[in-house]
Amino acid sequence: MILSIVGYGDPVLRKKGVEIPQDYPELKELVANMYETMYKAFGVGLAAPQVGLAIRLFVIDTRPFSEDEDLSKEEQAQLAGFKKTFINATILKEEGEEWGFNEGCLSIPEVREDVYRHETITIEYYDEDFNKHTDVYDGLIARVIQHEYDHIEGILFTDKISSLKKRLIQKKLQNIMEGKTRPDYKMKFIAKKGR
């Protein structure tokens, strides 16, 4: 089932997600719906707060990045095969050079900015079967994880840009809050709540 993606300005995007138990109601269905919603919106990641749930859950599939011809064959193969569900994740370490990449967000349509993030992360999480993992990721995979992890911490990529750039995108952010943006996927805007 395609879920509505919550737009910029909704308070749920600013809440720190709570951990979920193994018996969280209809977890498998929620995860499947999140993947379906992400694919429909042509995203590479989606966090539970983006579908209105302040819980520590996000899904990632980096396959769309694997088509970048500037990447090595090895990087393309790695990105093509990376699809994971992260439950109750904690980033243990961020290491390496910070590097910039032009990021966007399904909750903030039509806004893209360069964001600097660490190259390598160590993350502890549970998969959808509640098996615990501690893994190290780098490059684009680490970046996507950091972006989605920020969502479960109540942080948006726009928090990581300069105040000048924030002023330059203010009108676009206001348009999202007022529901004046028209992405080609299902969204719920804060101005339209209660109507």
TrEMBL record:
For this UniProt record, give its keywords in alphabetical order, as a comma-separated list. Hydrolase, Iron, Metal-binding, Protein biosynthesis
Q: How is the cofactor bound?
A: Binds 1 Fe(2+) ion.
Keyword Ribosomal protein present in the record's keywords: the answer is no
A Pfam family = Pep_deformylase
Task: Provide the reaction this enzyme catalyses.
Answer: N-terminal N-formyl-L-methionyl-[peptide] + H2O = N-terminal L-methionyl-[peptide] + formate
EC number(s) recorded for this UniProt protein: 3.5.1.88
The record, for Gene3D superfamilies, names:
Peptide deformylase (3.90.45.10)
Q: Which GO terms describe its biological process?
A: translation
Highest taxon in the source lineage: Bacteria
Which Gene Ontology molecular function entries are recorded, alphabetically? metal ion binding; peptide deformylase activity
Q: Which residues form the active site?
A: E148
Residues engaged in binding Fe cation: C105, H147, H151
What SUPFAM superfamilies has UniProt attached to this entry? Peptide deformylase (SSF56420)
Give the function comment from the record: Removes the formyl group from the N-terminal Met of newly synthesized proteins. Requires at least a dipeptide for an efficient rate of reaction. N-terminal L-methionine is a prerequisite for activity but the enzyme has broad specificity at other positions.
UniProt record similarity statement: Belongs to the polypeptide deformylase family.
| This protein's name | Peptide deformylase
Upper classification of the organism: Bacteria, Pseudomonadati, Bacteroidota, Flavobacteriia, Flavobacteriales
Q: Which gene encodes it?
A: def
